Amino acid sequence: MRNVSRTAKAADHVFRVVAGFCASSPAVFLLLIAGIVLYQSLPVMHFMGWQFVTHTRWDLGNLYGAMVKKNGVTAPVGASYGGLVFIVGTLLSSAIALVIAVPISILTAVILAYRVRGAIAWILSILVELLAGIPSVVIGLWGILVLVPWVSASLAPFLKSVLGFIPFFGGQVGSGYGLLASGIVLAMMIVPIITATARDLLLQVPLLAREGGLGVGMTTWEVVRYISLPYVRDGLIGAIALGWGRAMGETMAVLMVSGNAMNILPSNLYSPISTMAAFIADQLDSAQTDASGMAVHALSELALVLLVITLATNLLARWLVRPRLGRKKAGVAS
Amino acid sequence: MKRRRRRSALSYLGWSVAWLAAALVLFGLFDLLVSVVWHGVRSFHFGMLFTPTQGVAGGLENALLGTFELVLIAVVFAAPLGILGGVYTSEFAGRRMAAAIRFLAEVLSGVPSIVIGYFGYLLLVLQFHWGFSALAGGIALTLIMLPYILRTTDTSLQQVPHLQREAAWALGMTRSQAIAKAIWRPAAGGIATGLLLAIAIGLGETAPLLYTAGWNANNPSLQLTHAQVGYLTYVAYTYLDQPYQAARNLAYAAAFVLLVVILIIQLLVRGLVWRTTNRLQGRH
Amino acid sequence: MKLHHTKWFAGAAVFSAWIAVSGCGTTATNNSSNITTKSVENTAANQSAAKTTATVSLSETGSSLLYPLFNTEWIPAYHKVQPSVQITAASTGSGTGISDATAGTVDIGASDAYMADAQMAQTPGMLNIPVAISAQQVMYNLPGVKGHIHLNGAVLAQIYEGKVTYWDDKNIRALNPGVSLPHQLIKPVYRSDGSGDTFLFTQYLSHASANWSQQYGYGTSISWPGLATAIGAKGNDGVVAALSKTKYSVGYVGISWLDKAVQAGLAYAALQNRAGQYVLPTTSNIQAAAAAVKQVPSDERVSLIDEPGADSYPIINFEYLIVKKTQPSASTAHALQGFLKWAIDPAKGNAATFLTPVHFLPLPANIFTKSQAQIAQITG
């Protein structure tokens, strides 16, 4: 055995400090993001107050007119920053995505966990993960090329004729760009997330419990229904919350198929909408045009609201997944 | 007897619906791949890789090089931060500290990408007066890629048996020497996988770049600030909405190139995972 | 793998941390290289050499209305005249053109709208230089309807407000006796990006409708009334694409896109002018309106909407190139002045061979002198 030299000790110390510094970077970045976004939205908070989340009118005001002062903040005449349309759009489109994605993902996970084996299971799992890796702009492209025409020509008229008596399903079918298309595109994006987590959870259900079910005369389906799924319920809810957070923060694919609605709340399933994320991405120009800088602050507050909502759902998801899944998730690629 | 038949019919129905759901997911994936590849193959030609964008047509050289530059900058920042951060989490931090770092990394990965982009706009583009630039875009991508690299480094190191560490310490190595000389080896495959996946994610991002990188029809210069950069996802997003076939072809080609590159990386990753798991199993 | 060198590791980490933390510092060092003076190949390797050679590169972004003239007519032509000046153009919308020019990320911002007073106050030292006269037409996709339907500002305002929702509404029929209009929902298309065309169109609406003027006003981007049928599109190109894709739609398109849009199966309306006549955006009608322009201030920021005269087409405007008075270097200033002088010269850039394909008109003589005076103010 050889002695540890002083230089080696010093190097060890330096390495530890540097690595510790790197490990703190996520915390630093999070604080920085939250701090900057909050700080930049202060003027609009003063200007609008709670009306920012209760009003539907988003108006940069007359950029060629005079400035007015309200609550100590200078803004163009007629300016009004009401984000309710985008908050509603975000919540509704992600809710529709969940309605579509949750049953599909869980059922697919059941198949992946219990019905396929060996090479086929491997290939199917890879395909699902592949879907997770497709850039959202490519999914948006597919949305414009394939999904939107199909929604406007077939799906929307079909839903209207079958379920039209329910208020939200009736009314104008629209151009295909809108709430329904956004929900489907978002579902595409969260299915792999929920499926992968649900499959991992289902694989952790003890074999003994499942065999016990078969032993008392249950059919294989009943075992899934009454033993496996209840066993992983908390984890599943966590996975769903995770997917929900992802759906609310998704930008490009929604931007491309949402119809970019402004100043109007959706009246039915086919109405054009806009989400907070998509609207921020869409408003680059106006943020640059407003000489008073208020447009930049207003978008900043929208980013803040989005950040708070997605972080809250994420925290909820972590909290739900934590106890049972523990740190056992091994696969690097999942 | 009747009840049993009803139950087995229900079981049959349940499984059929489940298979249907799985088929639907696969159908969605194939429909997506086929339509993007179909449009892409018909619009793509190799000359596009060597011509920059000209007006509404031309090629993708500027966007390809720009994407490459942005991801390179992001890797330069995110790889050391993520790998060293992961090393610290796995090897140095106490149980509580490690849990906190993992938690924060996961929270960071949950921040919507447009919020990261807008943050970059507020801080780097406006506050620091960098303008739309490669550095601003690269740093925005860093924030996207960092948590993935950190987490995969951490998990791969966690899988290295504790015995290997003890053996290295017994030889009189300090902790960092043990990491640098011994422990990293079995984890390297996992770390490389994480890095590759992070690169694949970075390549496909649009939202963090809209407000930070801007757009440039010329090939990128090596100027880090005050020069806008083009990138592939921008072409796919913007050129799709134009009334010219040439512009739309460019968008299809951009999406196609993006998809191919990302698929290659994904397959590479599978290969790596397959090799390392095989090797580990061989050793046991 | 590069992982076994602890020193390299630590060094890289410290370096990256330093850059990340002291972001401002890098600005100063990078800034010293000239942003506008680029070599022909635009590669960084040649960047230091660029200052010694005479080659100057000018970049333009902005108005999608000016873009066809700039990109397909002026750039190739000017390259023959002055091969040492390399110009690149991009169609991004006037809003971006103005903000890029004021931020200094491009040398020339193209805009159909002049800068607002607030913008001028915020970024002093900007010049709004008219280089041509343009117009805007209202286009629609009405299968089966021949000829040009008649529209006016008041009815268009009602359409965009959602008060007139069907093509066979009595207000539209009143303007078009004898034309059989379909009972179909009107789908108004607007520009979702900051646009000079929006500025012109909403000015026309504000002139005709007091309600529009009060509720929505005018600007490069306004808060459009919330309509389930409305479609937002990016750029003139986007509007033409949306109109041709969507039956029973109506929208506003810059005149340089007229031929493209007509090829795409769209028709354009005869608009009511101040004298109450319905006029088409023909060369003579645009000319009549341009001739009626009387008062132009020396900074040339002025609206040309609704000029008097029986033949005057109501929506015409100056196409502005927006540049900084003080350029980063004498060579850029010189190149820029050279190009601008060439562009407004009636025998050169303003010649009919360039302007006619995009339906623009040359600057009238009195405007030409004013633009010339502004160009003379550019210094390096």
TrEMBL record, chain A:
Entry's localization field:
Cell membrane
Protein name (Swiss-Prot/TrEMBL): Phosphate transport system permease protein
Q: Which InterPro entries match?
A: MetI-like, MetI-like_sf, Phosphate_PstC, Phosphate_Transport_Permease
- Provide the membrane topology annotation: Multi-pass membrane protein
Q: Which UniProt keywords apply?
A: Cell membrane, Membrane, Phosphate transport, Transmembrane, Transmembrane helix, Transport
SUPFAM superfamilies per record: MetI-like
| Pfam families recorded | BPD_transp_1
UniProt similarity note: Belongs to the binding-protein-dependent transport system permease family. CysTW subfamily.
Q: Per its database record, what is this protein's job?
A: Part of the binding-protein-dependent transport system for phosphate; probably responsible for the translocation of the substrate across the membrane.
**Where does the sequence pass through the membrane?**
14-39, 84-112, 119-144, 150-170, 177-198, 302-321
What's a GO cellular component annotated to this UniProt protein?
Answer: plasma membrane
Automatic annotation (TrEMBL), chain B:
| Gene Ontology process terms (BP) | phosphate ion transmembrane transport
Q: Which stretches are transmembrane?
A: 12-38, 70-88, 100-124, 130-150, 183-203, 250-273
Q: How does it sit in the membrane?
A: Multi-pass membrane protein
Please list the GO terms describing molecular function: phosphate transmembrane transporter activity
Task: Give the CC-aspect GO terms.
Answer: plasma membrane
The source's superkingdom equals: Bacteria
UniProt keyword list: Cell membrane, Membrane, Phosphate transport, Transmembrane, Transmembrane helix, Transport
Tell me the compartments it is located in: Cell membrane
Q: Which PROSITE patterns match?
A: ABC_TM1
Which InterPro entries does UniProt cross-reference here?
MetI-like, MetI-like_sf, Phosphate_PstA, Phosphate_transprt_permease
Q: Which residues form the ABC transmembrane type-1 domain?
A: 64-269
The text of the family note is: Belongs to the binding-protein-dependent transport system permease family. CysTW subfamily.
Q: What is this protein called?
A: Phosphate transport system permease protein PstA
Origin species, per record, is: Alicyclobacillus sacchari
Question: Could you read off the lineage of the organism from its UniProt record?
Answer: Bacteria, Bacillati, Bacillota, Bacilli, Bacillales
From TrEMBL, chain C:
Molecular function, one GO term: phosphate ion binding
Q: Which domain of life is it from?
A: Bacteria
Where do the PBP domain residues begin and end? Answer: 50-345
Q: Give start-end ranges for the coiled-coil region(s).
A: none
Biological process (GO) annotations held by this record are: phosphate ion transmembrane transport
PROSITE patterns per UniProt: PROKAR_LIPOPROTEIN
- Please give the InterPro entries that the UniProt record associates with this protein: ABC_phos-bd_PstS, PBP_domain, Phosphate-bind_PstS
Q: Name one GO cellular component term.
A: ATP-binding cassette (ABC) transporter complex
Known Pfam families for this protein?
Answer: PBP_like_2
UniProt keywords (A-Z) are: Phosphate transport, Transport
UniProt lists the family membership as follows: Belongs to the PstS family.
State the name under which the record lists this protein. Answer: Phosphate-binding protein
Instruction: Look up and give the organism this protein is from.
Output: Alicyclobacillus sacchari
Upper lineage is:
Bacteria, Bacillati, Bacillota, Bacilli, Bacillales
